[in-house]
Amino acid sequence: TALTILTVLTAVVATWIQFNGTPTVEQSFGAVLLILTFLTLSEVVERFVRLENIEDKLEKIAVTEKPHWIEITENIPFIDLCQNATEIFMTSVMLNRTMTFYHGFLAGKLQVGTSIKAVLPEVEVSFAEYDEDGELSPRDYVRKLRDIQSSLDVMIKLMELGDFQLRFTKFQPVATIFIADPNKSNAKLFYLPLLFGSYKYKRVATILSRDTNTEWFNVFRKRYYEDLWGVAVPANKDTIADTIRKIDTHIRSLDVQRKIKR
């Protein structure tokens, strides 16, 4: 590099001035050491300059791209995220907790004109006899199915209050996603990965802002708000009621199977 070349020239000139004649063996050896010292010093300085440039670039990236992870102890910060939203998108395993804890909040939002879109897996996908904590006991499995029914009942009521749209998909979500105002510049996205033991141990989530986490926000928005919503099948109140009946039929079949085993 330019710095290294300049260092070598400086060392050569300094040595020539010092000797000003035929050098002895000791002087030649000293000149070599002097040049090597200058070279080593120039490399150290150059590497330091490079590191400073890298740190400056990393600091700029961290400000705009690094997600901030938060610990979820009980309920998610759903109301804080969606309080002022005019459009809300959501998807999860079955949104049971969301419907249980926030159905009043969602009803209020619908009554003031907020549009809400939800994507759930088809009920057959949810018939699996396990959750994020592992295999379910027969009693817990039935409770899980009843919770799904309750969640769907709430959604039928929400449809009667305003623009609540539900779609079913064969995809089994591996995260809970909430997006507040996905089409606005101040949009925010809540991402909670569903990990093994999600309900036994601490959970972490992140909130991505469109203006400060643009790249990752756009990735999740496209995957869920655009692509997942695009392949999911629209459901009306009759479709949801039919799904609730399917769950009843499935629970009755479980009772028959248990009686046969006895």
Could you explain the architecture of this structure?
- The chain has 262 residues and is an alpha+beta fold.
- The chain has seven helices and ten strands.
- Helix 1 runs antiparallel to helix 2 (25-65), helix 4 packs parallel to helix 5 and helix 5 (138-159) packs antiparallel against helix 7.
- The longest helix has 41 residues, at 25-65.
Task: Explain briefly what this protein structure is.
The protein is α+β, with helices and mostly antiparallel strands and 262 residues long. It has 7 helices and 10 strands.
Secondary-structure map with pairings?
Blueprint (H helix, E strand, L loop, with lengths): L1 H18 L5 H41 L3 E4 L5 H5 L4 E5 L4 H16 L3 E7 L8 E2 L2 E2 L2 H22 L4 E6 L5 E6 L7 E6 L9 E7 L4 H18 L1 E3 L1 H25 L1
Helix pairs in contact: 1-2, 4-5, 5-7
Keyphrases for this structure?
262 residues; two-stranded antiparallel sheet; globular; 7 helices; alpha+beta
Biggest pleated sheet:
8 strands, mixed
* Terminal CA distance: 84 Å
Strand order in the largest sheet: 1-9-8-7-2-3-6-10
Average pLDDT level:
80
**What are the secondary-structure elements, in order, as H or E?**
HHEHEHEEEHEEEEHEH
Which structural class do you get from the secondary structure elements?
Answer: alpha+beta
- Count of β-strands: 10
Radius of gyration: 32 Å
Q: What overall form do the CA principal axes indicate?
A: globular
Helix content: 55-70%
List low-pLDDT spans. Answer: none
How big a fraction of the residues is strand?
A: 15-25%
- What is the count of DSSP helices, taking H or I runs of 4+ residues? 7
